[in-house]
Amino acid sequence: MSVKVEVIEGGIPHNNILMSGLLGTLVCLYLTYLNVLTNTEMFAFFGGLAAIIALIWGSHTIKVLCSYGIGTGVPSAGMIAFGSGVIAMLFATRFGILAPIVALVLAAVIGFILGYISNNILNMKIPAMVQALTEMAVVGALSLMGFAALITGGFTFAGLTEGTVTMLGMTVSSNQISFIGGGLIAVAFLLGAIAIQHPFNATLGPGWKQDRMLMLTAECGFLSMIVAAFMSFALISAGSAMISLLVAILGWAYTYNQYICLSKRDAAAWLDAKPIPDMEGH
Amino acid sequence: MSAVAAKPQAGGAMNPTAMVVGVVMLLIILALCWYVSPGAGLMALIGITIGGVLIGFGTHFVPVGGAPAAMGQAPGIATGVAMLAAGAGLAGLFGGAWAAEQGLVVATVTGGVGGGLMMAITCMMVNFVYVFGMGIPSASGKVAKDPITGDTQAEFKSQGTEGHGLPFVSFVGGVIGGFLGGAGGTLIYLQLLNLYEETLPALMQVPPAQVMPIAVAAAGMFAVGLFLVNAVLTAYNITGTIEGPHDPKFKRWPRAIVASAVASAMCGLVAILIVVPM
Q1: A94, A75, A209: which is closest to A161 by C-alpha?
Q2: How far is residue A149's CA from residue A45's CA, in Å, rounded to a whole number?
Q3: Is A123 in Cβ contact with B81 (below 8 Å)?
Q4: Contact across the interface for A90 and B271, Cβ inside 8 Å
Q5: How many alpha carbons lie under 13 Å from residue A165 in its C-beta half-sphere?
Q6: Tens of pLDDT along B62-75?
Q7: What average pLDDT does this structure show over A21-40?
Q8: Are A168 and A80 in contact (CB under 8 A)?
Q9: Can you tell me the distance from the alpha carbon of A211 to that of A218, in angstroms, rounded to the nearest whole number?
Q10: Which of A124, A182, B131, B219 fits a 20 to 30 Å CA distance from A190?
Q11: Which tens digits make up the pLDDT trace of B81-108?
Q12: Where in chain B does DSSP place strands (E)?
């Protein structure tokens, strides 16, 4: 029996994923700025795409870090990514159009210091630790910013804290109906944290394949984007939210199919068992 | 290098240079905070740092068993440090947030009680499952006698395991850890909430009543973020599993104190900078 190896061990080098992930995320985040330029909200879906690209990059970083066996479980890496990322992201929103760049730099600084703490003060002595935690913080910050842009149509502090509520036909400005004030940020936080830690946790082992894991990340990311797009109905116009929802559902359907194909490819054997067996003949 | 060969080498050893660098970093961060926001900001940052240290120290008490505990081969609760610490801390945080208007001491203690209660319930139900579901007695593998009750452990321990179930000392450790974690999380939340309530109305030019949801949500998110950072750093310190305060790994706590202090101060500084006028 011959074993067909479709990807070499390791697949695409991590640095390529890092660079393309970083560029793709920043470009998609800035594409949401078209909302301001054209005075619409229909480009909000680029925020979701930015989050998904960042998540894909982040899940590969988790793979690099956790293949050293840090002994604390894979989910902890996702938690520290978003825990440090949310702090950088919230502060960066104050800088208006520069927000993604500030989030990137600040998250990198926070991540670097956390990496130093883990490696030296806590004596972990893992070679990939500092770089991985730096990347993770950036991924956490940028993907949260992506979700914020998807839900509110922008990534500035004013946009995230101010909303409008229509009461008896009158439109009143309110801080309660907003991304931060309404607590939507907590949901976005965990949507991202689950999507970033699940793929490597689910696919690790001797049969690990890079393309299968990254496809699973994209699938988890689109799944989170569906939920986030639902939430965006509260804050942006229904048409724009519908565009986000359509993009998310189409993307999820495609990546889910691809992931099932890749799983069938990597499985030793495949039996298409039915969830409910036919009871004929009994 | 394979994953098995590359197990972390982190023993109990301290790295004195790094510890000194950590303390210097902490002082630099405090000085920066004094520079940008001398009164309220600095006080808030000190409170945040104390809260972070409480979380980091408290997590060492929690009996974390991980995957071996799920198979009855090691004592402790069968999940990871980050999950347990986050669970206890967030339960405490929610408890303390309800009491935020009762003042600092009442709210912090309420948060601690919330976290301790969550851990007590978890430890009790875990022992129910272990004893009545899996049919294993509680026995520690790290000590010959339970330090609190004095019960001997060896005759209850199955061969080839590191102990199993949740001995009494681990139960007590879990409750203490939950109390410290919940109190720390609440302390961080209260410091940030007070700061935001004072400064956000002027910054955003809205009335104080309007700013409440923003202050609560932002302080809560920062507290959750800080909590997760501290919990994961502590998880890195004890590299996975710990039985409780009687475990030899417990002696590593000084490293976690420095690490938590630096990490909380740094993240706290960013959280305070958000309300510093530019």
Answers
A1: A94
A2: 8
A3: no
A4: yes
A5: 10
A6: 888 888 888 888 88
A7: 90
A8: no
A9: 11
A10: A124
A11: 878 877 877 888 888 888 888 888 999 9
A12: 139-140, 163-164
